[in-house]
Automatic annotation (TrEMBL):
InterPro entries membership: ConA-like_dom_sf (IPR013320), Galectin-like (IPR044156), Galectin_CRD (IPR001079)
MF (Gene Ontology): carbohydrate binding; galactoside binding
Pfam families per UniProt: Gal-bind_lectin
Gene symbol of the encoding locus: Dere\GG26464
Residue stretches making up the Galectin domain: 38-177, 234-375
Protein name stated in the entry: Galectin
SUPFAM superfamilies documented for this protein: Concanavalin A-like lectins/glucanases (SSF49899)
Organism superkingdom: Eukaryota
Keywords per UniProt: Lectin
Amino acid sequence: METKFMSVYPGASTVALRRVMDAMSLFYEKRSAAHRRKHFKVIQCPRPGLCFVFHGMILMACEHFVIDFLTKQGSEICEECDVLLQIGSRLPQNYITRNSRLKGKWGPEENSSYLTFQLNRGKSFWMQILLTEECFFISVNGYHFAKYIHRMPYRWLEAVDVLGDVSDIVIDTYYVSEYPIRLTHSLPRAIPHLSKNLRDTENTETEWMVLSSLAKMSSKKFLYQPSLPLPFYGKLLDENVLREGSALRIEGRVRLMPQRFSIAFQKGQEIWPQPTVSLYFSPSFLRNRHDKIGTAIITRRAYLNGDWVNCTVSRLNTSLRPGGAFVIVIVCRDEYYELFVNNRSLFHFKYQMKPDCVDIVNIRGDIKLWEVVVEGNTTYKKPRVRTAMERALGAWKRSEIPQLQI
């Protein structure tokens, strides 16, 4: 029975890791329990597609608030209820925790996310929690925040509690066919097309454009330029869809202590169900002190017909460095994507789906983003003969570009 339970619910293995709550969590637990704001009994049958939407006001003195998904209807104070999922928002620390409680003991806490902390004192908040077969999906203010793999059967869900320093709580439930629900500010923005025609541009001039962008982004006066909000959802309009000869150029900077970031060419803007993905590119940064700066684990793959395909994971030395500016160019060739980082070709990825089917570019993770544009008829290719100009370019690229804090 235990083997069957753990095979159906991958997160169930954490049951063996149950522990007593740490001092900070215990403090917040007792503080929140004294301020129970809303108790909601789940009437609908818990099944995939059931969506919970929470809306309320964060108090000016807010330290912490939690949303508990309980396994049974709680009494006025239910300290022994099993908790399928607790979402704990800690405003002094600027992060959101996820955990489960079974027989009075908590499992390992999860607190990482692609999304920056988006909750502010004195402002309203909007959360969407979606129940699926494998996990809970959590959205904050219209953006997907994290997913939480089930540690207990979701069919045990019977009630929801909201506790802590919030007010005016409203809870709605309904079944949805896609996730997340987009708010006005989280709708995809149109990706502009580079006005300059690069049909006859020489390869050296293209390199100069990239190096000029790197120098500009590395200057101190550029440090405080407004950046594009993340996660970034860019929409490719009919007149600038990706096709052979076109490219997507992305300019930004890696954060000082990065874990990972990702770029996805996909069809559709939803997170669930998983959309078709023509190219998924994600560097994960290594933290071993013996690794060279810029070494990363590079993942690339595509998602078609319900499966990830053509998955490749490589350990590559790149010019993507903590605190460093970058220009990533993804070029559409006749049969494959070619990805350049700071003028260096990093890899080829054979088409699993033609690029003109892509309508959304999804960028998220530990970077600051300044520009995303489509270039037409580009000439990103390796020169056959190195001229004096190209040798000078090579010397400039080998020189150190200042690394600025962000």
